[in-house]
Amino acid sequence: MDVQIIKQFFLFFSILFLINLIKINTNVLTIQCNIKNKYDYFNDYLYNKTHCLQNGQINIDLDDFINYEYCKICLKQKMKYCGKCSTREILKRLKIFSPEETLDEIINNNKSLTRYGDGEFELIFGNNINFQKYNKTLSKRLFNILQNNEENLLIGIPNSFNIEYLNNFKDYPKYFWRKWINKNKYKLIFLNKNKKYYSSFITRFYMDYKNNSNLNKYIKKLKKIWDKKDVLIIEGEKSRIGIGNDLFDNMKSISRIICPSINAFNIYDKILNESLKIDKNKLILISLGPSATILTYDLYKNGYQVIDIGHIDIEYEWYLRNTTSKIKIEGKYVNEVKDGNKKIKKIKAQNYYNQIIVKILN
Questions:
Q1: In Å, what is the CA distance from 301 to each residue of 296, 298, 306, 320?
Q2: Which tens digit of pLDDT belongs to each residue from 87-108?
Q3: Which of 80, 202, 251, 276 is 20–30 Å from 166 (CA)?
Q4: Contact 110, 90 (CB under 8 A)
């Protein structure tokens, strides 16, 4: 009887061991297999199961993960990020042109620029941001556009992904980016070390930097983008970029399309359709959060020169005020300041209202 019990006990634990072994092998096979739908793979393994790569290899097509090995420590911890992968190893190989070099490429060669910041990457990773809720279509489009190799469309990403660049920053932005990179570095594996990236910081030229001694020269160069040109501005309802300052005083003419300040992607098709009615001889500047990244690409593909100018107006307002901290600007939407999006007063500048050709708010 005792022998029979021992045999049954042994058989039970043998079966249990085999089940666990099958589960482990299944997980490994799932990691190694060539998934047909890269978005399903992307969602399953980047959004929900954090991991990192051995030797910091980042030049990866999501269809070809079979050719790469994951960090063994991560695998042992059942895909939980082990913290041992080097940020420097993962990101140092990226080639990101400086803001000045990016401006030169736009001005001298009439190229377009679409930009990615931490907000766009958060949406790709499946998270909401302050003024745009996560949307699966939005996330996929942001990911797709990041992979494109259009000759005359520059892809701007944060220069802060090159760790050495952070030495130019004040303490808080340096801390912010180090923390953000350490949290998200293992999700940035789709960035291509063989691709030329440009700066998303061309419109972030003042507040974060320790040394602003050459800022006047930089702003003069920045304003050459639209010098003596007919310009369409596509912006959020209360952005009012260029109003109350001289940022756009050298433009030949200005017209505006006004869109929602938050969740603009919810009515993206309407915004795109109205934008496509504009004369292709006009330069288009877009300040519309993550929707601007996609709209820039779509308008570029339809024959326009387009620049995603993002936060440029507020940055310029802070520069004019010589402020050392982010502050509210009366009459304008300021997302990065507490309550900067509340109780925004109506402005009296009639030229602003005269420039509006259409409002698309719902």
A1: 9, 5, 10, 36
A2: 566 677 789 999 999 999 999 9
A3: 80
A4: no
